[in-house]
Amino acid sequence: MRFFLIGFMGSGKTYWSKQWSEAFGLSCYDLDEEIEKKAGMTIADIFQKKGENGFRKIEQQVLTSFFEKDDFILSCGGGTPCFFDNMKQMNRNGVTIFLNSSVEELVSRVKNEKETRPLIKDVADDVLDQYIGEKLQQRLPYYSKAMYHFHTRFLSNDNFERLHRRHAK
Q: Mean pLDDT over residues 152-159, rounded?
């Protein structure tokens, strides 16, 4: 089975993909790490050299390559579902799980990681919550298309265990 974790930056996609992959014996991948391997440069460098459009094209290619693998959890980038037909393709080829967090939670998790997050790198701290709130509202129509929605405040291995059982072959 293929599991795709989606949600805004800082929602815990990487953390929970590692937790659940260990607990349930699935391979674990981080889409951003896979993009960096393919491109031979960091996400920040890709954004700087190729712009967001160039990044999104690479992202789609790498995402599509996962449709031929099986038995994994993929932690997707925050914008992955919002471009091309990525969300539709993830739903068609696996199980999508939206990790939903409040703006306050997201800000507290990412405010000290701005240098490694190109979309917020140049956003002033005093307007970071406003920026994240607006960006989250723009992305919610895409995130809402996920098969399952979990608020991160209430997440545990039990949440994923029920999904894993339901979708196991």
A: 92
The whole-angstrom separation of Cα 125 and Cα 111 is 7
Rounded Cα distance between 68 and 85, Å, is 17
Name the H helices within the chain: 13-24, 31-39, 43-65, 86-93, 103-110, 128-143, 157-167
The secondary structure element, H or E, covering residue 73 is strand 72-75
Whether residue 165 is predicted with pLDDT greater than 90 in this model: the reply is yes
Q: Look at the alpha carbons of 28, 43, 141, 99 in this order and tell me if their dihedral is positive or negative.
A: positive
What is the average pLDDT score of the chain?
A: 95
Q: Are 123 and 131 in contact (CB under 8 A)?
A: yes
pLDDT, residue 92, reads 98
Q: What is the DSSP letter of 26?
A: -
> In sequence order, what are the residues at sequence separation of 6 or more whose Cβ sits closer than 8 angstroms to the Cβ of residue 155?
12, 16, 99
- Asked if residues 152 and 109 have their Cβ atoms less than 8 Å apart, the reply is no
